[in-house]
Amino acid sequence: MSKRANTELLPQEKRDGQPFHKVSEIGSRREQPIPDEMGEFEDAWEDEIESDEDVTNAEDGEGEDVLPAIEESEEPPPAPQVYIHGTHVLNKDEILEPDDSVYIMRHTMNVNWPCLSFDVLRDNLGDERQRYPATAYLVAGTQADTAKNNEVVVYKLSSLHRTQKDGDDSDSDNDDDDNDDLDENPIIEHRSIPHQGGVNRIRAQPLPAAAPLPLPSQPYHVATWAETGKVHIWDIQPLVESLDVPGTSFDKSRVHAPVFTINSHGRTEGFAMDWASSGPSSLRLLTGDIHSRIFLATSTPSGFNPLSQPFTSHTSSVEDIQWSPSEPTVFASCSADRSVQIWDVRSKGRKSVAGIASAHESDVNVISWNRLTTYLLLSGGDEGGIKVWDLRNVKKTGSVDPDPSPVASFAWHKAPITSIEWHPTEDSIFAASGADDQVTLWDLAVEQDADEAGMDDTPDGGQDVPPQLLFIHQGQKDVKEVHWHPQIPGTVISTALDGFNIFKTISV
User: Fold this and answer.
1) Which end of the chain is more exposed for a tag (fewer CB within 10 A), N or C?
2) How far apart are CA 169 and CA 136, in angstroms?
3) Is residue 71 included in any domain, yes or no?
4) Domain harbouring 260, CATH code
5) Largest Cα–Cα distance of the chain, in whole Å?
6) What does pTM read for this prediction?
7) Is residue 159 a part of any domain in this protein?
8) Is 173 part of a structural domain of the chain?
9) Has residue 174 got a pLDDT over 50?
10) Which residues pair with 118 in a beta bridge?
11) Which residues of 366-384 are buried (b: 16+ CB within 10 A; e: fewer)?
C-alpha cells in the first residue's frame, strides 16, 4: 500500500491552514508563509526546520539513507495456540499462559508447606453468592519437612475480584458493579495450630445448607488423618472467630490440643475419611487405613465414642469413603483391591452388603456420591479412568451375577485420578483432578450434536475431546485435591504441591 501525503486525508475545504511535510518527496524546502498586514506570527514549526546542510536531495543519493515505508498488513495476527495435554508437548523454553477471557475469577495462592488435603468451611455470608469481590474460608493440613513443623491452618481469602479480561467487556451483565473488574490482589489471613506429623487428609464437620455457623461457644469440628496412624478431632471455632473479629484472642489450651484422638488404627496410617451428621449434637466419622480396615466413631453430648469392631470386606488399602446422602446408615468405599463396596452399619459381621468387584483396571482411588441423584456414584482409578455407576444395578454380596457396566466412562486423564467431586447443586456436573496436572470439569448432560458427528478438528495423532468435557484448568504441579465451594456457585478450589488455585470459569 503506497504512502499518502497528509493533505490526501482531508477534504479540500479543510486543507487550508494545514501544515505541509517539512520535506517534500523531492527534498525541497517548503514555502515560507506570506505575512499579512498585521505582521508576522512566530513560526510554530521554526525549531523543526532543518538547516540547508541537513537537507539532501534524494536524487543525489547523498546523506542519510531513507528507509522505505512500512506496509501495513491486513492479515489478522495468528491466534494463540491452545495447549491440549496429551496432544501437544511443551518445549524447554515454552510455558503455559492462562487465557483469562475464559475465567470469571482466577487467583493463585502460595503456601509455606504443601497442603495435600483441604476442605471448604461454610460461612455466614449467604448461599448462592454471585457478587464480587468474594470471600472464602478453607481449612488445610500441611506436609512439612519434619513432623514437628506441620500445622492445621484456617485460611480466610477475601477481596477475590473478577478476572481482568482482555477486549471489550461492554456486554457484561455486571456493568453496574464498579468494583467487579478491579485488578487487585486478594487478602489472605490465616490462623494455625501445631499438628504432629503430616496430614494425609482433613475434613470439616458437615453443616446443613443455609444454616448459620455454630455459636462461638459451640465447637466447629475438623478431623485430621495423621501419618502417625492417629485420627485427631479439633475445634477450629476460635480460629474462625479470630479471623472475623479483629483483636479477638482465644484460649490456646482449647485449640492447640485435640478434642479427641482415635487410636483404633494403631500405628497404621490411612487416607479415607468422611463425616456424617444426624443432628446438631450427633456426628459420625468413618476412617479407613492402608490395612483394609474401616472404623466408625460416633459423638454423644459427653464426647466421642469409637467402635472397636472394624468393617473388613476389602483386601487392600482403603482409599476413600463416602456416606450416602439419603440413607443415614449406608456408606460406600473404594480400595486398592480395585473394588467399590456398599455397607450398612446395621449389618451383622461388619461386612459389605453390595459391591463392584472389579470397578477399575487398577486401584480405585476416589469416589463421590451424587447428593441430588442419589443412585449415581463416581469413581476414579489409578489408570486415569473416570466411571459413573448406577447403584441400582450393583449386585449384592455373594451374588454370582457379573459386575454391572458403568453408565458412563471417560479415559481423558493419563495419570492417576487424585480427587473427584459432584457439583453441589447440579446433578450432571462434576470436577476431577489428576496426577497429570489437570483439573477437568465435566457435564454428563452434554451430548454430541448429530450435525457435528464426524467433524473432528483434533490435531493429527491427538486425543479426541469428549463432548462432556467442559473445561481443562492447568498450571499447577501435581494436583492432589479439588472441591466446589458450596456457597459460591461454580467456584472450584484445588490444591497442589505449589499451592492453591481458586477459580470460576465461563463454562459452569
Assistant:
1) N
2) 26
3) no
4) 2.130.10.10
5) 117
6) 0.80
7) yes
8) no
9) no
10) 140
11) bbbbbbeeeebbbbbbbbb
